[in-house]
Amino acid sequence: IAERANLAGVRHILLVLSGKGGVGKSTLSTELALALRHAGKRVGILDVDLCGPSIPRMLRVQDSAVHQCDSGWVPVLAGQDKAIALMSIGFLLERPDDAVVWRGPKKNALIKQFVTDVAWGELDFLIVDTPPGTSDEHISTVEALRPYQLLGAVLVTTPQ
Q1: Phi, psi at residue 142, to the nearest 5°?
Q2: Is the pTM of this model over 0.90?
Q3: Which residues contact 25 (CB under 8 A, 6 or more apart)?
Q4: Is 117 inside any structural domain?
Q5: Average pLDDT per run of 10 along the chain, which is 160 residues long?
Q6: Angle at which helices 136-145 and 104-116 cross, to 10°
Q7: Distance from C-alpha of 112 to C-alpha of 132, rounded to nearest angstrom
Q8: Any idea what the CATH number is for the domain that residue 147 is in?
């Protein structure tokens, strides 16, 4: 089964969550990926923040295109050494700043497709940057990742 194969080489999956927007989830996801890469780990980022996909811009690959291979989408390689695998809806929009206005079922289908149809290869860590809040996207992401080795979650908070 293809969907099993695409995440079969991923050793650990880590969710980055928060109850509200603007607390630094994408920044933390990016910095965590860079730090793990610096420590010699093979790292990928799955950006499921469908309404605000900022990681492509943070890693300066916002103008990249996603290509297909036999086992699905090939992630964009990002970072100074082009060694961080990245998948984001930002790569699928005509213009990176376009707004995504979708109802739940379409968002949930894309999240499932991101989990099952991206050819991640061998990774030590897959960091999943989620949208703010506690929406359907979170439930869809956790449901889609349920069969895999979920390491845990980082909950980003602020003092207020």
Answers
A1: -65, -40
A2: no
A3: 16, 17, 18, 49, 129, 130, 132, 156
A4: yes
A5: 69 89 90 95 91 88 87 88 90 68 74 87 93 76 78 85
A6: 30
A7: 18
A8: 3.40.50.300
